[in-house]
Write a structure and sequence with these properties.
Layout (H helix, E strand, L loop, with lengths): L4 E3 L4 E3 L5 E3 L19 H12 L7 H32 L16 H9 L1 H42 L10 H14 L9 H27 L22 H18 L6 H5 L8 H31 L17 H37 L4 H4 L1 E6 L3 E6 H20 L3 H29 L6 H32 L10
Antiparallel strand pairs: 1-2, 2-3, 4-5
Amino acid sequence: MVHVVEDHIRGLQIDENGSQKDFHNSTEEFDDDGHARRTGNVWTASAHVITAVIGSGVLSLAWSIAQLGWIAGPIVMVFFAIVTYYTSVLLADCYRSLDPVSGKRNYTYMDAVKANLGATQVWMCGFVQYSNLWATSVGYTITASISMVAVKRSNCFHSSGHGAACHISNNPYMASFGIVQIIFSQVPDFHRLWWLSIVAAVMSCAYSAIGLGLGIGKALEHGHSHGSITGTSVGHGIGQITMDQKIWQMFQALGNIAFAYSFSAILIEIQDTLKAPPAENKTMKKATMIGVSTTTFFYMTIGCMGYAAFGNHAPGNLLTGFGFYDPYWLVDFANVCIVVHLVGAYQVFAQPIFAVVETWASKKLPKSKFINEDYAIKIPLCGALPVNLFRLTWRTMFVITTTLVAMLLPLFNDIVGLIGAYGFWPLTVYFPVSMYIHQKKLKRWSSEWNGLQFLSGICLLVSIAAGLGSIKGIMHALGHYRPFKTNY
């Protein structure tokens, strides 16, 4: 087997026998850095962005707006959309060092941080980024299993009546989702997942549209509270909460909305799939605009119509909280779309972790056949799949770990809020802003420097508040939760 070693200075491809080949003359096979030619474009990148952004977070938006009310809810959502787009534009320029068109490529988010901010901050970035990606994989496992359980419960309610118990354990469904992820995890790298992201993006748009349609239909029915200016009511009556509960739930709602916009952690990895010309940063900015504007449209309409449909009693998960019972087949189809989407979204967030671990292992033990040797296995109708023993072993263990943790803590809103709070400020705001300041050599205390630092400070406070609210919710939920035994 030929192992390709990159030589960025001379532009040579070197095989295991020491022979050299000028890959600049092999433009059909390799890019300027010796990697296999990238083929991504604005549409595949947009699909990756939409797959990453429209996830389980969309299902909690009606509940989030219910905590904030008709004024603060949409304003907060627009705030997160603007901040995410703006900082993503800054981050897109960090894919190449020094010059955004011809500079040295940074293949990962950590590479970009190291090139701009140095080795000290790269360790902090790596810990936050990869722990956030891992936690997101846990969150997607929880959400997928809840949607699978919802299909089963929907059919139970249809046959036995809306008052039936229909309590079902989600553990078998988490295990089945994990098995599917073990299979898809053997796809070697991000570049070969474009088709899965496109399928997932179509599914996300499908269930978002269904949720929107059901919300509009419910909102048009008579006899519903359509919400209020301030959201959930404070008091001592039925359906009311205390002021302390109101504040904590508002904080948690911030985390849920932040989670709904979390994709900055994989933006550089998505950008590394793009072909050039045109310049990768220009394509990525267009893809980000398409992705963020598309998701914001869905978020605003679904969140607002869901709140209009259920008022202050909006369920934590719009499609699995059983505010909608009929038509049951449409609810079932929407939940199936969620599961299919999350199969792809899980891979989009897990692949950067797979890549960094396998690259590190290959550098440490370059002669190990267990780590570096690929074996071609022919699969009917799919061609040959390269199987690597190390990849098979460690990726399987990764999926098993996320599945077990999801079984221990299947708390949808609380976990979603905590993940969103944890990753929003450092990955979406702090590092992109800091790298931009370094690249542009902005003077301390200049107007632009002050503005960026103010933005970063505000977002830090938002992340802290959201994190505290979600931790409070988790502590409350754990008071009556039994691991592996609680049913839906």
